[in-house]
């Protein structure tokens, strides 16, 4: 053991653990271009989770889209359809926002649409989960439309700029302008 290092697990009272940054010290920053959590294994796991979530949301949405509640006896509100469409919109939008590419949201959308299509078929016992009424048609086409719109929507927000530049991405552009060229 070196004289300037404390014994394993032993530190002075009130001081940080050996090797830990002191209070108020700047946090370590990754090297430029490094993406945190970008190992091949974590990306594959993320894609598998996206597939499973898409299939799960498609299956649950297909089952619950027929639920409705009566509003004061005046009309039936298709609450299951509303909740299912909002849930898939939030799932796909969330995946689109957090993933660096469209692949995770595209995989979730493909699994979702595949599960909806599979559960639309008549079962061997003759039961049908998606009847050919207005609610069923809105579920079929609405879920597909939401998936296509979310995947096709451009990713807006902070754009990458060359290292060492603080200004706008293009000369003459306003500093608060959104760069849509990428």
UniProtKB/TrEMBL annotation:
Ranges for region Disordered: 160-182
Bilayer-crossing regions? 44-63, 69-91, 103-121, 133-153
Q: What are the UniProt keywords, alphabetically?
A: Membrane, Transmembrane, Transmembrane helix
The record's listing under Pfam families reads: DUF6113
Q: Which InterPro entries match?
A: DUF6113
Question: In which domain of life is the source organism classified?
Answer: Bacteria
Name this protein carries in UniProt: Histidinol dehydrogenase
Organism listed in the record: Herbiconiux flava
